[in-house]
Design a protein that fits this description.
single chain, four-stranded mixed sheet, about 180 residues, four-stranded antiparallel sheet, Immunoglobulin-like, alpha/beta, elongated
Length: about 180
């Protein structure tokens, strides 16, 4: 028995750790760990009492490259997100970006779908006060005054030359009448 047990113990000690192949093992390389999906809905602020189409809104994990677009009901699913804590954001032209921070994917949620709170996009409201009645040059002058920028003098503009010495009266010469 000792003859079999001793080589077995030596062989196991020489082999080291078993490989980390489980997608739910934190020691497994990140590219082989279990990934999570994020799902949720996006809504838009109505325009003039009419709800715009919810299809085609871009929803992404901020700064990570994981993204999806919404369907006609505003639903989306972002797949393949590795473990971590993220910000999910929705973007559409003419609307303010909506975001939800602190959405977490863990190895425990790997292979599952994490529900993201609803994202609501609101219309961008621009102030147009003073722009229609003000002439463009006045707006430009105001912008230059605000930033301290001065228009450079064109190269073709030269300062006035003093008259030539022969054309100037000499202070010692008598004045001609």
């Amino acid at each position: 028995m000792r003859r079999i047990l001793l080589p077995l113990v030596i062989w196991l000690a020489a082999c080291g750790e078993p490989p980390h192949d489980s997608p739910y093992d934190p020691q497994t390389p990140a590219d082989r760990q279990a990934h999570t999906s994020f799902s949720g809905t996006v809504s838009l602020e109505p325009v003039g009492g009419v709800s715009p189409s919810l299809a085609g809104i871009q929803v992404s994990v901020a700064g990570r490259g994981y993204a999806a677009t919404t369907d006609g009901t505003g639903a989306y699913v972002i797949e393949g997100v590795p473990p971590g804590t993220y910000t999910v954001q929705a973007v559409l032209a003419g609307y303010q970006t909506a975001a939800v921070a602190g959405v977490t994917a863990t190895l425990d949620t790997g292979g599952a779908t994490v529900a993201v709170p609803a994202l609501e996009l609101r219309r961008v409201r621009a102030s147009l006060a003073g722009t229609a009645a003000e002439p463009p040059r006045a707006r430009a002058a105001r912008a230059c005054a605000r930033t301290g920028w001065r228009r450079p003098r064109p190269a073709w503009t030269r300062p006035a030359r003093p008259p030539s010495p022969s054309a100037r009266p000499s202070p010692t010469a008598p004045a001609r009448s």
